[in-house]
């Protein structure tokens, strides 16, 4: 009577086995040279994606030199990975106010990407064009998942009046104020907050004949707009020579 070989199989994965994860190499079996069998087993690997969620008994069998066979079983648990989604946002203008990110499901995950701080997205801190935003979550069973979306940022036009602030408007005269022209941008001029020159492309200059506080509103791609800082024109009396 030959004794049965002593076979042990105790496989402890380095991280939780989750649906959708790549195959793992089965270890922890002694003596070496045996064979593995069971659901989603191929050679010495186990594929969680093939197995799906659940508990699976994997058998390790060994035949010694006497032809005696013994085996041991290790139960592997595969957990369901979270089904993660992220709703798209935008587009935004580069000078838009920060917005709260709320489109990630299931709740409790983490947002990351350009312009992201916590659960807030700040367009002014993102890149012009496409920004890839990621929402990631790890469930209590240790399984992780993520989803991405693109947020488009359109550039806000420049709006800087070139004429110095406090320009004196002498009686009977006018003063020209201007802004640098940009392709695809339209401009309108305002005096004390009231439009005095309608929105139009190449409307980059305005003749000031009344004292007041002047601003220019620039409207560019996708309706993005910028309001300039105030430039004041002060009345002055022309002396009699």
Give a description of the structure.
The structure is a single chain. Helices cover 2% and strands 48% of the residues. Strands 19, 21, 22, 24, 25 and 26 form a six-stranded mixed β-sheet that branches. With 241 residues, it is mainly β. It is built from one helix and 26 strands. The mean pLDDT is 94. It has one helix spanning 48-51; strands at residues 8-9, 17-18, 24-25, 29-30, 35-37, 41-42, 45-46, 54-63, 69-79, 85-86, 92-93, 99-100, 104-105, 110-112, 116-117, 120-121, 129-138, 144-154, 167-170, 175-178, 186-191, 194-201, 205-208, 212-219, 225-227, 231-236. A hairpin with a 5-residue loop joins strand 24 and strand 25 (225-227). The radius of gyration is 35 Å and the shape is rod-shaped.
Strand content: over 45%
Can you count the beta strands? 26
Tell me the radius of gyration.
Answer: 35 Å
- Sketch the major β-sheet: 6 strands, mixed
Helical stretch tally: 1
Distance between the termini: 135 Å
Structural class: mainly beta
Low-confidence spans? none
- Please identify the oligomeric state: single chain
